[in-house]
Amino acid sequence: MRPEPLAALVLTLSLATGAALAAERLVSVDGAITEIVYALDQGARLVGVDTTSTYPPETKSLASVGYKRALSAEGLLSLSPDLVLATDDAGPPEVLDQIRSAGVEVRQVPDAATLDGLREKIGAVAAALDAGDRGETLNARIDLELKQLEQRLGQIESRPRVLFLMVVGSGIDHSAGRGAPVDTLIWLAGGENVLHETVVDYKPLSPEAALAAAPDVILVSDRALKDLNGIDGVLGRAGLAATPAGQERRVIALDNTLLFNFGPRLAQAAEELARQLGTFRDPEVAKAGD
Description:
The protein is of the alpha/beta class and 290 residues long.
């Protein structure tokens, strides 16, 4: 029996829509997006990732398309992707235009480093992969984990004053203020970013600014701690040795991906930072959660 014309049209449109959503050769151009893809159990679709995508370990077996802000159309198109997921800072823009001109969909997803922004980002990635239900489940799980963390922290009367140090390029010292992922992370862990009010995103850090900020704790990535040859190397940057944190040699390090990938492991990152800051209400509860 042949389908009626209207029914046939509906069937055709449904199949076309499903084909558009069911991307099978995916390239992720952002570390947090990559983590979200895996958390949605869609990692098998990935054929390539950028250099910020180093977690989970499965990413090591995937082709690299280079740094997210210095992409090559030729290298990316050689993977024959049918969908590229990226954030707004991916580029250069002309390269993304070349990829689109080749018939590949490039979908740029929201990237605000807030809890609402993370929910929106997960929802956008899930929608792009036709995995909306999984996205809702993931967001609910993260909300629960953060609620449990908040309960373990309790009412914090005095938040440790934290200064984040990042060394970039040819060795220029940077820190972070509001809008940066680490700013939200510090607050969730029970700390206070000393540059929250005066700095937006990532900015160069001068010795004068570091001294005026008077941090209790200096936070770095584990990679930076290694590259700077330990605590002495950290305290030799931007006049940090003269700060209260420097005088007490209070430097803590967090896994690089936990610091910079504002994604599904946000609660885990905040929990680890809280443990090192000592902000848990009950130290024994903190140990039990390790």
